[in-house]
Amino acid sequence: MSARLQAQVDIEVPFHDVDAMDVAWHGHYMKYFEIARCRLLQRFDYDYPQMRESGFIWPVVESKLRYLRPARYGQHLRVNAELTEYETRLKISYVIRDAKSGECLTKGHTIQVAVAMATGELQYVSPRALTQKVEKCLAN
User: Fold this and answer.
1) CA-CA distance, 11 to 76, in Å (whole number)?
2) pLDDT class for 4, splitting at 50, 70, 90?
3) I want to staple 82 with a disulfide (CB 3.0 to 4.6 A). Which of 6, 18, 49, 96 is the partner?
């Protein structure tokens, strides 16, 4: 993929996401990834409602996170999501940075695959409903 589809969101770490040390609990980073992923999917009009309308669900089958520095209560984060594969699966790479300094806190990726809702069958090639929307967005 030569052109890149990206989206970013800004998040302030809320009190209910931190432990007694004011550090964001490790499981919440996936939530931050999900918020950025939805923004990315919206960029090419294939967010979760459009997935369902096209007849496919897209379960996450792999996720990887690498924690480099802790996020803390009240810290402003910038979460970037980038579509890195779409022809046979959705692979989205993420970087979470401190919004002020730009320091990298967390990196990772998720992989989702298409499953036909009617039959439950795994699709080995991404449905045209996705590829057409991605290619249209990349062309603009």
Assistant:
1) 6
2) confident
3) 6
The chain-wide mean pLDDT, for the chain, equals 96
Residues in the chain: 140
Q: Please say whether the beta carbons of 78 and 8 come within 8 A.
A: yes
Long-range contacts of 117-123 (CB under 8 A, 24+ apart): 117/52, 117/55, 117/56, 117/57, 118/55, 123/56
Is there a contact between 29 and 106 (Cβ–Cβ < 8 Å)?
A: yes
